[in-house]
């Protein structure tokens, strides 16, 4: 018999098992979540990256955390500045980074050349669902409006977890402007928290970005431009023909289902396990994503 | 100017920068480490996996944590039971798993058919260098003889960090026997701590394993056997011709250099950073590895 390991099946909408009961896995809880536990990802906060080979990646933007950088990114996407761009860097257990077609091109109208350091924001207004366990990087950790959030005093920020998208920059005081972006691909490099702007997260397609060949030059850059992974385009979903717009939902982190899911992530009592951990790290509770179901109420 | 992100350059022996001083990056500290900060990885604790395409992965074994499972693995390697085997599963942000050529073959002499649950061990005898920060999965976390270690009361275990190798098993009470192994490839699935036997870690070659295409069947298994990634062999380094034996060193976690490295991982003050985190997670302090230098004292 093939030996297996437990799975966190975030995208198995048909993985319904027995009716909800004790000792459920996180995947079971997600599979049985009612429609009211899910929130739509609006098309004007969603980017669709299409690689030259046709594979796609969906990225949800977080304007509530980095409004100016996100504004720049939306301007760039609407002007198709990444069409003909490329993934130029894949560093194992760290990041995948991409660049626009022409770094020297005049930015589009409305672009802010030198955004402020949107590395954290005011905590006020954030409705925080605590993680419930310690975080070595921040005094407070939890979730708000379907995002993971860390906080200290009156400041809050998006943590640099697996799948989170941030803004590449030069040495301080440069903050980056949104033209070069990266996604975290490995153990969460939380030392980057509050040092670079986090603008969003990959919702679908990490299996594509994560499997790219690692670059062999320093920092994981591709040594030869011929190795760069060509990007066909990065577009705002709202600008795509309706039939091409992804319809995705993320779990509401203020829902009872999310509370149960978080508890199950921290305390695995499903049959595969012999000992629950009684704790979990912030980045080890990825907020569930699913394709929106036809006829779903919201 | 290309925008960059900081790098943890664990294998850049020539990345010497300025003489040691303040505000060093972890990479700087590793690059300047004296030879006395490094310990050889013995050839009889080292596996060399060679894929059919010639790429290699070096795996250090941890018999002090899982002696029976490691004993089985050594028997299997010496009998070349993975020659003609394959990587059968690659699940994004989770594991890469491989299997021997013939699951039905009679195990080699000396093989223990039903090993005990080597999911943790007595803490006694472990010389613990504390991490110095909280861990949501264990009351105590740190390092011992160049391994990351978590502990609770009188028990200690190897955490399921990126690059750690564990034993695939079926439902309890099965413990696995070492024939199917996996490596963690993503955010540390620490919920697996004390639920599966950890037998070692990948020292070199994660850039190969991490970049494999993700399987599309459930749990990341390859849907079609034709997609399996063929293994030419997994051999014990000590059994290879001397010229083929990797000579690797890991940093001594009882060395002053390691203390400085750990501090730098937790407090990035090198020029790229604007704000140190003042903390770090256990799995975000990978123990440095380097090729042994010719003429190095040990």
Automatic annotation (TrEMBL), chains A, B:
One annotated GO molecular function is:
isomerase activity
Q: What is its EC number?
A: 5.2.1.8
SUPFAM superfamilies registered for this protein in UniProt: Cyclophilin-like
Q: What domain of life?
A: Bacteria
UniProtKB keywords = Isomerase, Rotamase, Signal
Keyword Signal found: yes
Indicate the secretion signal residues.
1-18
Q: PPIase cyclophilin-type domain: from which residue to which, for each copy? A: 49-217
Recorded hits in InterPro entries, A to Z, give:
Cyclophilin-like_dom_sf, Cyclophilin-type_PPIase_dom, E_coli_cyclophilin_A-like
Which protein are we looking at?
A: peptidylprolyl isomerase
User: Which organism's genome codes for this protein?
Assistant: Gluconacetobacter sacchari DSM 12717
């Amino acid at each position: 018999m093939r030996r297996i390991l437990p799975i966190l099946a975030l995208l198995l909408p048909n993985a319904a098992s027995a009716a909800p009961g004790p000792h459920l896995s996180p995947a079971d809880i997600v599979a049985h979540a009612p429609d009211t536990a899910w929130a739509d990802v609006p098309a004007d906060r969603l980017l669709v990256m299409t690689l030259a080979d046709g594979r796609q990646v969906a990225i949800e933007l977080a304007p509530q955390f980095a409004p100016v950088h996100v504004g720049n990114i939306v301007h760039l996407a609407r002007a198709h500045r990444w069409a003909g761009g490329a993934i130029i860097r894949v560093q194992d257990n760290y990041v995948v980074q991409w660049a626009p077609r022409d770094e020297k091109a005049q930015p589009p109208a409305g672009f802010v050349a030198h955004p402020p350091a949107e590395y954290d924001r005011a905590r006020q207004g954030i409705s925080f669902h605590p993680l419930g366990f310690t975080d070595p990087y921040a005094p407070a950790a939890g979730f708000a409006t379907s995002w993971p959030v860390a906080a200290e005093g009156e400041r809050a920020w998006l943590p640099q977890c697996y799948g989170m998208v941030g803004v590449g920059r030069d040495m301080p005081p440069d903050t980056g402007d949104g033209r070069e972006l990266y996604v975290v691909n490995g153990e969460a490099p939380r030392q980057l928290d509050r040092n670079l702007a986090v603008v969003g997260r990959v919702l679908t397609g990490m299996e594509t970005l994560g499997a790219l060949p690692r670059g062999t030059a320093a920092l994981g850059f591709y040594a030869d431009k011929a190795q760069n992974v060509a990007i066909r385009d990065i577009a705002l979903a709202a600008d795509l023909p309706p039939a091409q717009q992804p319809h995705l939902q993320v779990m509401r982190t203020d829902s009872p289902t999310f509370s149960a899911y978080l508890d199950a992530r921290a305390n695995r009592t499903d049959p595969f396990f012999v000992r629950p951990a009684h704790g979990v790290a912030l980045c080890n509770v990825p907020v569930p994503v699913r394709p929106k179901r036809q006829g779903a109420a919201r």
